[in-house]
Amino acid sequence: MQQIFILKKVRILMVSLFLSVFASNADAHKSMDKIIDEAFKNARSQYAGLTDEMISTPGFLPHSILPDGSLHRVIPSSWVSGFFPGTLWYIYEYTGDKAIRKDAEKFTSYLKTQKNNRKTHDIGFMLFCSYGNKWRLCEKDKETEDVLLSGAKALCTRFNPHVGCTQSWDTGKRGWSFPVIIDNMMNLELLMWAYKISGDPVFKNVAVRHADTTLKNHFREDNSSYHVVSYNPETGVVEKKQTHQGYNDGSAWARGQAWGLYGYTMMYRETGDKSYLEMARKIASFIIHHKNMPKDKIPYWDFDAPNIPHAYRDVSAGAVICSALIELSNYVKTDEAGEYLAVAETQLRALASPAYTAKPGTNKHFILKHSVGYLPGNREIDVPLSYADYYYLEAMLRFRNKVFKK
Ligand code: GLY
C-alpha cells in the first residue's frame, strides 16, 4: 500500500516536471517566434533604406561599408552580388510584401549578365541566391530557368576530370596551379538544381566528384578543413594545402568551416549519400565543441586566431553555421538534433540582440554588425557583410519552419 502511494507520488512529480519543462519550452518557442517576427520587421525597414540608397547607382549591388564609412557597392560579377537580392527574397517570403518582391525582381535582374560567366566558381552563390530564390518563390518562368541552367553550364566548364574538382580562382598566385577552396562546396547546389531540372547527369557527376575529392583532400584529422588545396591539373596530385583568408595554413578559418558544414549538409540532402552526412556531422562536432567557441556561439574569425578572446568575431560564419545546423537537425537522431537546434537558437538569440543587430537606420542599413571578410588582406574587418544578413534571415526562416510550422 505504502509502495503504491510512493509510486503514485513519483508519477505525479514526474508528470509535473515534464509539464513544467514543456511549458518553459513552449514559452521559449513563443519568444523565438517573437524574435523572428521582430527580426523580419527590422530587416524590412533596414532593407527599404538600403534599397533607397541603391537608386542612385543602377546596376550596382550593396556589399558592406568601406573604411571611409561609405557604402561598398559592387558590380554583378562580384562573388557577393546575389546576396542582396537574395535577402530581399527572404524578406518577401516572410512578409508577402509585393513591393519587396518588385525590388527583389529588379536587383535579381542585374545578375542576368552573369549567366555565361566562366571566369568564376562563385556563379552558384551569385545566381542561386538571386535567381534560385526567385525560382523557388515565384512562377517557374523560362528566363529564370535559362539563367540558372546557363550558369550551371558555365560552372561545369571549370571542372577538371584529372583533379575531380571545379577550379576556384584563375590565378597563378602563390604557385597555385589549380586552387580549390572549401567555399566552392556552396556552388554545388546550383549544379544539383540543374541536374533535377534538366535530367542531365553531367551536372550531378561534376557536383558529386567535386564533393568526393574535397572530402578526401581538404580535411584534417580533427575534421577541420584547409582553406585552399591546390592540385596539379594534369595529374590531379595535391601540391599545396594552404590558406588565403585564414590565420595560417594550419588554422581553422571560421567561415571555411561554415562553408564545409553547409555544403556537405546540402549535398546529403541532394544525394542521400551517407558519407556527406557523416562529414557534416563531424564538422558540426568540431565547431560546436571547439574550446575557442564563445558562449554565444558566434565564432571568432578563425578558431586559432592568436588573440582570442580579444579576436574579432565573424558574424557571417555564425549565420552560415546556424542555418546549416538547422538543416542538419533534420537528418540526425533526436538527441543530436536537439543539440544542433539548441546551438542554433543560442546563435539566433545572440544575433538578434543589440550585440550584433544594428540600431534601425544605422550600419548603412545592413542588419548585422561585426563580420570579417578578409583579415589577412586587411580588408572588411569588423563590418557588416551582405552574406551575413542573407544567411541570418535564411536561418530565421529555417528555424520558424522547423519549430513553428510542423
Ligand atoms: N568565398 C569567399 C569568402 O567566404 O570570403
Overview of this protein structure:
- This protein has 406 residues and is mostly helical.
- It has a domain of 144 residues: Glycosyltransferase (Alpha/alpha barrel), CATH 1.50.10.
- It is 54% helix and 8% strand.
- The chain contains 12 helices and 9 strands.
- Helix 1 packs across helix 2.
- The longest helix is centred in the first third of the chain and has 53 residues.
- It starts with a helix and ends with a helix.
- 49% of the residues are buried.
- The N terminus is likely disordered.
- Glycine binds next to loops.
- The site of glycine has 5 residues, from loops.
Nearest-integer average pLDDT: 93
Distance between the termini: 44 Å
Low-confidence stretches: 1-27
Can you name the CATH architecture of the domain at 34-45 and 275-406? Alpha/alpha barrel
What about the largest sheet?
Answer: 3 strands, antiparallel
The CATH topology of the domain at 34-45 and 275-406 is what?
A: Glycosyltransferase
User: Class of the domain at 34-45 and 275-406 in CATH?
Assistant: Mainly Alpha
- H/E series, N to C? HEEHHHHEEEHHEEHHHHEEH
Strand content: 5-15%
Q: How many β-strand runs? A: 9
Query: What is the number of helical segments per DSSP (H or I, 4+ residues)?
Result: 12
Shape category: globular
Structural class: mainly alpha
Strand sequence of the main sheet, in spatial order?
Answer: 5-6-7
Helix content: 40-55%
Ligand catalogue: glycine
> Nearest-angstrom radius of gyration?
22 Å
